[in-house]
Fold GTP-binding protein.
Amino acid sequence: MGIGLRTKKSVRLKSLSKRMNRSIESFKGDHLEDSDDEVFEKVEQLEKISVKGKHLTPVPKQDKKVLCRGNEIDSEQFRRRMRRGNVTRYVGEGRKSVVRGRNELGKDVESAGKGMDSTSGLLKRKPSRWKKRDVDGDDSDYEQYSGYKDSERSNERIRKEEAVNKKFRFKRSKVDIELSKSKCDFVSEDAEIEKNGKGKGKENENSEQKPVRRPTRVLDKSGKKIRVQNKPGENGLMAPAVPKRRKRAIKIDPFDMSNKRLVDSDENGQQVDELVENVPVISKNGQFRAIRPSDEILSFVEDNLLGRRRLIELKNAGYNVKLSAPLDNIPFSSSEQRAKIEENVFRNKLEFFAAAKVSSSFPPPTIPEIAFAGRSNVGKSSLMNAITRQWGVVRTSDKPGLTQTINFFKLGPKLCLVDLPGYGFAYAKEEVKEAWEELVKEYVFTRTGLQRVCLLVDTKWGLKARDQELIDSMERSKTPYQIVLTKTDLVFPIDVARRAMQIQEDLKKNKSIVNPLMMVSSKSGAGICNLRTVLAKIARFVKP
Ligand SMILES: Nc1nc2c(ncn2[C@@H]2O[C@H](COP(=O)(O)OP(=O)(O)OP(=O)(O)O)[C@@H](O)[C@H]2O)c(=O)[nH]1
Ligand SMILES: [Mg+2]
């Protein structure tokens, strides 16, 4: 770099000596003792031109005579500008002018009238560095380029706009405060400040930058802080917001047999691990969880793998989980062993033979009947398929209300299974559902060959009012009925046991009830074998 600089210096010296009509030797001779840099500095002073960095090539000195459009601009001012922008030449309006000059970065620029400022005749530059004041296509947008009068005009306009804005903001804040005063019974903090005149100046100062804050926290008459709604109510008053209550998180342990609730957090959100006992009003769920099943029921549930179970548990117990109702098979059994149903009567083919919508169309009662009653979707039809292992003979659906007639199925010469329409919620008209209910009651009251009614109850929901109604009517007609808990695979084993205990307790005084209470799952097959055994006894004592 040093060499390059020296070369340029020598070139520069040469041109200077030429211009000043002095030989280089004579020039140097004056400053023999000076270093090159010092000589340069002196040359710079002489020429009054900037020699910075690499831009050592001087701009050739031009004639001071300047041609401007109509000589409108003060020549002294223009010259000053020219010096700042390093403009060297300008040819007037209407002619294609060539301007050579140097921009702010010290770079030589040559322009053929394209980048000219129309008023000042200065070289235009990309205006990104200038602060844009207003976007209206006016030249005064760019402070740097606008003439003195233009900039003054724009400044004045900006000042006016700011004054109007300020006035508007102040007015708005005043209206807001007055509104809140008149609408709200409480004395707002903000209004109080305004009233006392404290921070009034501050308010005005800040109003330029910040939007006025609407009062949301106010003081009531006792001086206590309360929240008010942002929007006024129907009557136009700012009503105090109702504080939101935190919901208590309750941990539920499926194996917890006590009626204790573990409270995770109190209302303030603080962690409190305390046992809440002796709650005066216990919910139905709480009452259910308070039930302590007997050891007998608990062991029965465990032995028969009732309740929700993991597949791995069933696999380990030797059941093939790929089969439908796998628990209705002998563990670690072959396919031949699996095909066997212990009770002969249930090995018979299940055959549909009659359907009745009204009592007059009931078939003659020649063989004993076992009816399956219960709420819609409780699993009556599925259970009939499961106990006979003949999937698909009785139609099932996840939509409540599929079975709408009393359907009679023959199971060999000795037994008849009857699928009753469900009651309670179903996708049917009210009057239609009432008709089903009446039909079921009529069948249960009047049917002579009816040996037993299996009243199916969903383990999850337990006995409902309509179940109780049917039980009462069967009690009155002395129809033997047996409670069968269904869908046990959907609840925890402990809850299966609790439900069994609960129903046994509720119905222990009933006379027509047949014990034991059965627990089954048509899906997993749990308890199906036991139900078969119980029902097969009915067929055994029938005389052909
Ligand atoms: N998980 C599970 N689902 C079951 C069980 N039994 C039945 N279901 C399902 O429950 C739904 C209703 O079964 P259905 O047998 O049609 O019930 P229903 O009592 O005959 O119903 P209606 O004919 O409408 O009175 C079906 O989607 C069955 O797959 C069971 O033991 N476990
Ligand atoms: Mg059905």
